[in-house]
Amino acid sequence: MKLHLVALVAHLISLAFAATIIRGSIPPSNLLINPSELPADTTITLTTSGIKRSTLLRADNSFVFRNVSQGSYILDTLCSTHHFASLRVDVTRDGGVSVVQTFRGNAWSNSGEKRRMPIELRPVKVAEYYVVREGFNLIKMLSSPMILIAIVSLVSIVFLPKMLDKMDPEFKAEFAAQQRKSGSAAAANPIANFDAASFLAGMGKSDPAPATQQQQQGQGKRK
User: Which residues sit opposite 74 in a β-bridge?
Assistant: First the structure.
């Protein structure tokens, strides 16, 4: 009888250690002054390998997970209006609970600041589903490569002749001689003056001479 009683007490103690309760809430913050305005489908999930538990917020913006066994969990807040940071929840064999901030995609050992119990969830960002149309930005428009090329070309067309007029006569004569020399060199090079467009257009034209000869032969037979 005593052995059965001892075994029952040990079983109840193990159940008490295994039945860990995790509590938390969403308090008011700068991004969420009134947590009661959160959507009714806001869900808190507690996930580990092969196990996923979820619960909804209560009327007082709190949540409870009962009978949480030993292990490491990820606590997420699924909300359509606000984004919440993910938390890592470690439950030890003796029922102890530690909560730290975790980061998706990083090593499991890479944890953030430690949180107190009961857990307080605060939003980190307001959810945005629309892209705000960007207004007119003169600086951004002028920094476009096409606009810069157009401005440089316009400045060259307007100010280059004036700069040539103000040049030293000797330097101006030397510049004109170089222009003539480069022009004569281009004329002496037939490849440089080759007009590909005219050449390709001439290839499509047929020789009208045979057609003219056929017409003259037909007129001679009629006579």
Answer: 47, 88
* Whole-angstrom distance, CA of residue 69 vs CA of residue 95: 8
Whether the CB-CB separation of 161 and 172 falls below 8 Å is answered with no
| Listed residue (74, 33, 25) closest to 52, CA to CA | 74
Q: Are 115 and 87 in contact (CB under 8 A)?
A: yes
Strand partners, 90: 72, 98
pTM of the model: 0.53
Q: Which residue has the tokens 């892209």?
A: 131
**Whose CA is closest to 46, among 63, 27, 31?**
63
Residue 218 has pLDDT above 70, yes or no: no
- β-bridge pairing 123-126 and 82-84: antiparallel
Q: Around Cβ 123, how many Cβ atoms within 10 Å?
A: 20
For 14-69, write each residue's pLDDT tens digit: 544 456 888 999 999 998 899 998 998 999 999 988 888 999 999 899 999 988 88
Contact 119, 163 (CB under 8 A): no
Distances (CA, A) of 28 to 16, 33, 65, 116, 177: 33, 5, 21, 17, 82
Residue 73: beta bridge partners?
89
150 pLDDT higher than 80: yes
What does the block give as tokens for 169? 């006569």
Cα(66)–Cα(197) distance, integer angstroms: 83
